[in-house]
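Following up on my earlier thread - several people asked me to post the actual chain instead of describing it. Fair enough. Here it is, all 206 residues.
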Amino acid sequence: MKKFLIFSFLLIISCQTINHPDLRNGDLLFVGNSSGNLSKAIDEVTQTDKQTNFSHIALLEKSGKEFWVLHAAPENGSERIPLREFIRNQKKDGSQIEVYRIKPKFQPDFDNAIETAKTMLGKPYNFSYVLSDTAYYCSDFVYHSFAKDSIFEMNPMTFKNPGETEFNPGWIEFYENLGMEIPEGQPGCNPNGMAASEKLIKIGDL
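Reply from S.P.:
Thanks for posting it. Predicted structure:
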């Protein structure tokens, strides 16, 4: 009975709209697929059984009464911006923001994760998606923030839509423009894969 009540409670809170006071240090913000070609290409090749549609992930910092977002984005690389600015930037594309939280049994040192994230600020965005310590992409940034506590895993990347054998056309054009081969099979991570982790639970929509 106790387990049923806990499960029911989690289902209820997963459907609610989160107000800022309900957010916690270390929460993860997942951004839905936008209309951009890169966003669409990321979402298409990283689908999981949970059928989420995320193309971006960011880390939330609660400092006193203020909320900050630490993330790596194509526009400005790795940065720390006010939550209100992050929300405004995402909502102008009509993207939904969903809040996930690491489950208590896997709870890491959030202060350490935030401090680790801050050491990566100012680095450029990693458009190649090949792991580097001089540039980061969004999920790579979050992965490294929690690396000490092994919250997330790297897996072989694919640039093919699920169930298909040919590369996604968007990625073919993307890497041709970069003048490099598609890094199929190299280690990496992505927002959809992270959202599917058993270590996370959805808290609500922002």
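The chain has a mean pLDDT of 87. That should answer part of your original question.
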